[in-house]
Amino acid sequence: MSTGGKKNNNPDPNRRSVIIGGAAAIAGLAAGIVIGGSAFPKLEEKTQVQTVVKEKPIVSTKTVTQTVTKVVPTELQYQKQKVANISQLPSAGTSVITTYMGYPVIIMRTGVKSIGGVGPSSDIVGFSNVCAHMGYQPIVYNSKTNCLVCPQHFSQYDVTVGGMPVIGHPNEYLPQLYLEYDESTGDIYGLGFNRLVYGVYNNVLQAPSSSSSSSGSS
Which among 178, 127, 113 is positioned nearest to 155, based on CA atoms? Predict the structure, then answer.
């Protein structure tokens, strides 16, 4: 107790104990942090870089030279073949039955300028002598109408206009024979057909033969 109004400067023992205890606790916590950090060191993260080398395949190119023998077929062509002489066709309305490359043909003198005609008056024409309807042969030349007439079904072809069908069943022209006339000798040559002959798919490849024979008729 204080006497005479003077302050007691002696510290309270209880307060002193509290301060000392708090300081000790703080010191202990700090020491724990330091010790804990030393006891449990931080793990270091290491990054490893791995290099992968891929091997590329090596492509080898080899050139092989090979000799191949190829047989090239000879181009098929029509033949130039004598089929008549103008002496066998002395006047209009006369005709010659013959063959061209083995195909039966008929050569006629129409007396009028005709499509594909040769000779001095361009009136000598030639046609396949096989009907384009069903292949009947021979067909007959009618000099009055200038038509080739099939006796089987009476089909008729106008020989002055390229063998155009004018009567009957045919739905196509009669194959015409291209002709060439030699003025110096009067010979008449066949050069080929302008369309397929009845019954074949290739006139040259399927030609029966290249021989020809002729006989005159009127």
Answer: 127
Residue with tokens 């073949």: 81
| Prediction pTM value | 0.63
Cβ neighbours for 50, distance < 8 A, ≥ 6 positions apart: none
pLDDT tens for residues 107-136?
999 999 999 999 999 999 999 999 999 999
Give the other-Cβ count within 10 Å of 5's Cβ. 5
Hey, which of 25-29, 32-36, 127-131 has the most confident mean pLDDT? 127-131
Q: How many CA atoms lie within 13 A of 30 on its CB side?
A: 6
- Phi-psi region for residue 83, left (φ > 0), alpha (ψ -120 to 50) or beta? alpha
Which residue in 129, 113, 209 sits closest to 177, CA to CA?
129
Domains of the chain with CATH codes: 81-207 (2.102.10.10)
pLDDT in tens, 84-112: 999 999 999 999 999 999 999 999 999 99
CB distance 108 to 126 below 8 Å: yes
Q: Give 99-155 as a DSSP string.
A: EETTEEEEEEE-SS--TT-BTTTT-EEEEESS-TTT-----EEETTTTEEE-TTT--
Whether 124 and 116 have beta carbons less than 8 Å apart is answered as no
Of 72, 75, 77, the C-alpha closest to 207 is 77
